[in-house]
């Protein structure tokens, strides 16, 4: 592109012509990379190209084998009222590259491999002790990658990038030792770009790409597990904020005079509604059998709803996605949560927000690592426009 | 553009060539429209065009008289350590069009006129009674526009658009009678696009374009006046959220058992820290002379800081801008506010946020109306990319 820009544009035509075509092609490739399988109609909408230009571009990309076309279920109707009608669907050529997602969780290490056509080709997980060092966790993940590629006969020569989720905040303005260790070890192993982020934020991104908030403009994600974290996804991208801590809903204060928290705040939501705290008061709280468990869940639901109300009045998201083991308690948690959310939000905010349970399973964060790889390419492309 | 797209791109060259040049030119015009005067260096950074392409594009636009070049103060250094060194600055041709900003405030109607070069060419205001009908307020504003254009010899034939701020929420998903009345009356008068939004949100946008948050990526704005409102500005644009209520910080709950609020919530911040409430308890609170006034301000500052902490943990903004008459009390308000914000935010959030007083005066909302007009052109351009 530089070359064709560097000459006086008025003089030549092949440079600008090629540049324009490249821009159009990249726009098509980016849409498929970030959104997965799309019909031609969806692709036209996504790329904002005229049907004529689009069909010319698609024809070229098909002949280059950059794209593949197949009869499939209309992605627009998938999930809705059963199966969608069969239509012609375009995807990137599955052979075009692979993305690797790794989640180095507190108790569990997950590895998921996808191709650029959004097909998940292999996945596996191993348990690990909470005390496991981070160097050891990375090694366990790399061993798991070897097992998976061997058993599935996958070659990583076409690996496009790796996205890794870790526990704890990943600052954008300061060096995080943990993140650096992970990034360096993994990129040394594969020789491709490696991105590291908080695994709850990656789960939020995955829900916005494949899960409960797929395709929405703005989503708040809250994870209620042994820790309480969250993420904010705007326009299909993770919103980091100035310090990479946007969406830290677990550290919003619910009791101004509460105990101080390692995060630097005090009376943080996490302290009151984490599984660690709740199970200390009622061991089988997830079964919600007795009155004590239900009272604890009612109180937790109210507190979560109050925090979500403050967050919703701030960003007025389309969707609030709630994940983590605590959501297994269903209405015992969600009824008081919804009541508190309604009670403490601006009417305009409450009328427009949809609260829903997370749709993805324990591999959400690893999938989010893959989404990070697939959306970054678009980021780079967009920044050039 | 459609025409050149509608043919098979591979065949012709003038179409794509013209299209590419138009895209580059629009990119340059948009940057100057939204950011105001820029040096060539800043313009290259803003448009992400190579110096060679940029200078060719700028030359064309100068010869078309779409741009003007003048010796000016380097905008990058303006304000910082006194005056900036003189440099060559590019702006849109001031004759290229006008934008009109109107603020229909509770007690005051402001009209401000700017050209597309970000030069404010006329401004005026009139007081009005709180009970004044909205039809009457619009009429007062239109009369003021007539007075200003006559006395300054301004012709509105080149008017590009009007941005109007009104009191109260402006829903994006539902029809707001007040907004409709204003939009219809004003567009009938000028025959140009008219945009209506909440005037506090427009003040937030103005601070992000010309004020205390100029050029930052993310800013939360809070206005502490007879009402308490706010706005969220991301990437130089107002973030509306699903229902147009993003940034409604005045309606975040500070007392879960507090009184219900017309907004639909209860125990809302506005109820505790609005000037209406505070002056009812201490008439000369803005002078902060006696202990009673100071105690009230300490309490108000703490509550505002706690609400800002929740909002900052949610979006982790670069800057928090606080405006409104209550900020005239200075440290009496800001010291407890900052202490509460520090006490209740995640370290990563607190380390990266800067809290500052609003820089613009009572014409902020009217200026925001102008910013809405100038940034919308970019929105449309960006949506085409």
Can you give me a brief rundown of this structure?
Chain A is of the alpha/beta class.
Give an overview in words:
Two copies of one chain form a homodimer. By secondary structure, the first copy, chain A, is α/β, with parallel strands linked by helices. Chain A folds into three domains: 14-92, Arc Repressor Mutant, subunit A; 98-202 and 364-383, 2-Layer Sandwich (Nucleotidyltransferase, domain 5); 215-357, Nucleotidyltransferase, domain 5, CATH 3.30.420. The first copy, chain A, has helices spanning 2-6, 14-35, 40-47, 51-63, 134-152, 177-190, 199-209, 269-273, 275-281, 291-315, 331-343, 347-352, 364-384; strands spanning 38-39, 67-73, 86-92, 98-104, 108-115, 120-127, 159-166, 194-198, 218-224, 228-234, 237-238, 319-323, 354-357. Chain A has a five-stranded mixed β-sheet with strand order 6-5-4-7-8, with helices on both faces. In chain A, strands 11-10-9-12-13 form a five-stranded mixed β-sheet, with helices on both faces. Chain A has a three-stranded antiparallel β-sheet with strand order 1-3-2. The model of chain A is unreliable at 1-13 and 378-385 (pLDDT under 50). At the A-B interface, helix 1, helix 2, helix 4, helix 10 and helix 12 of A face helix 1, helix 2, helix 4, helix 10 and helix 12 of B.
């Amino acid at each position: 592109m530089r070359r064709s820009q560097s000459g006086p544009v008025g003089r030549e035509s092949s440079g600008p012509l090629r540049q324009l075509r490249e821009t159009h092609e990249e726009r098509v490739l980016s849409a498929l990379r970030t959104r997965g399988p799309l019909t031609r109609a969806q692709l036209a909408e996504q790329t904002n190209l005229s049907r004529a230009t689009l069909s010319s571009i698609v024809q070229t990309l098909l002949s280059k084998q950059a794209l593949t076309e197949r009869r499939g279920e209309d992605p627009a109707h998938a999930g809705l009222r059963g199966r969608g009608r069969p239509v012609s669907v375009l995807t990137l050529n599955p052979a075009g590259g692979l993305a690797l997602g790794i989640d180095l969780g507190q108790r569990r290490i997950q590895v998921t491999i996808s191709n650029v056509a959004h097909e998940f080709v292999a996945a596996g997980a191993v348990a690990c002790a909470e005390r496991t060092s981070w160097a050891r966790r990375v090694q366990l993940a790399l061993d798991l990658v070897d097992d998976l590629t061997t058993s599935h006969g996958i070659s990583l020569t076409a690996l496009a990038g790796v996205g890794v989720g870790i526990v704890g905040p990943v600052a954008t303005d300061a060096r995080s030792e943990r993140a650096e260790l992970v990034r360096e070890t993994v990129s040394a192993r594969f020789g491709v770009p490696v991105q590291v982020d908080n695994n709850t934020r990656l789960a939020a991104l995955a829900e916005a790409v494949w899960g409960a908030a797929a395709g929405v403009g703005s989503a708040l994600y809250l994870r209620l597990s042994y820790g309480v974290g969250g993420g904010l996804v705007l326009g299909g991208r993770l919103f980091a904020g100035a310090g990479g801590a946007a969406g830290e809903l677990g550290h919003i204060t619910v009791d101004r005079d509460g105990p101080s928290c390692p995060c630097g705040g005090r009376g943080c939501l996490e302290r009151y509604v984490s599984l660690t705290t709740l199970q200390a008061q009622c061991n089988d709280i997830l079964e919600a059998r007795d009155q004590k468990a239900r009272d604890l869940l009612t109180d937790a639901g109210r507190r979560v709803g109050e925090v979500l109300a403050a967050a919703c009045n701030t960003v007025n998201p389309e969707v609030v996605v709630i994940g983590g083991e605590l959501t297994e308690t269903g209405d015992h948690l969600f009824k008081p949560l919804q009541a508190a959310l309604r009670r403490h939000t601006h009417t305009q905010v409450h009328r427009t927000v949809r609260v829903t349970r997370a749709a993805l399973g324990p591999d959400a964060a690893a999938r989010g690592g893959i989404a990070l790889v697939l959306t970054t390419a678009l980021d780079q492309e967009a920044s050039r426009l």
